[in-house]
């Protein structure tokens, strides 16, 4: 008897399934195909969520999990007007907004910040500098208005285009440009002592 | 990240881009576990014998197969070809609990002979439906080609 979870999408030596092919299969109930999307886009979604919600590992994990569950349940509503990546980032953004509305800001855990950095091993001094920089960056981000923080992270860390950021945040490209301009200026001022 | 002459914000952004969340694996496992546990909407479909009856014995016992099982089996079987793959599989179940109609939307690879691909899909659907729901289940099978893509349809 077949199960409800039999994979459709080929994962052989000839190539890697595109997002479009994975979405197509996932819409038909192929949870292995959806799992491939999770592993493809999840790490950057988690990184974005963590920086956005103030560095909390637990909050970011919850935001990303809820975003993926929502995506799985509403895949039929994804029409392909944007990429699946942009759509997933939008779901993360919405969940993070909901979380912030219902919770007080979470203090930054210094130990956490230092743990999430991949140690290169060959340059301990650089690792320490990076850790301290990221610590300072998180403090500076936490002081930014929400939209500026989100726009800066999506552009400078996740590499999304202006149109993608606008879709993710549910705003216009013009607003994104404004948020980015102000966010960059404020962050540069706050980080200036590291020069 | 090498030491450089760029500003502190640029260096911090580069360090942030290089981050790999170490708890990703546990988040991923949790997401997949929850997805797997999600119950797909389904209806019971009655098995029909070759003579058109649904009674399995003299007491009127009936056998049912969940529509999600039928859909899953169709998805698995139709998704193995590099030339054509389903992007929609809809099953209509009648008030009498019999399968009333199967509708398939197909994506085909550029260069595929479409009428042949459609007939192949229809034949395969009929075999699977008969296998799962009994030889007396003779639902119409509508197949529509809704898109054509370049390359292996399982990957494109």
3D architecture notes:
The complex is a heterodimer of chains A (195) and B (156). Chain A is mainly α and 195 residues long. In chain A, 67% of the residues lie in helices and 0% in strands. Chain A starts with 18 loop residues before the first helix and ends in a 5-residue tail after the last helix. Residues 1-8 and 106-120 of chain A have low confidence and may be disordered. Chain B starts with 7 loop residues before the first helix and ends in a 7-residue tail after the last strand. Chain B has a three-stranded mixed β-sheet with strand order 3-4-5, with helices on one face. Chain B has a two-stranded antiparallel sheet with strand order 1-2. Chain B has a domain at 41-149: Alpha-Beta Plaits (2-Layer Sandwich), CATH 3.30.70.1350. Chain B is 36% helix and 23% strand. Chain B has helices spanning 8-17, 24-37, 67-78, 114-133, and strands spanning 44-46, 64-66, 84-93, 99-109, 141-149. The longest helix of chain B is centred in the last third of the chain and has 20 residues, at 114-133.
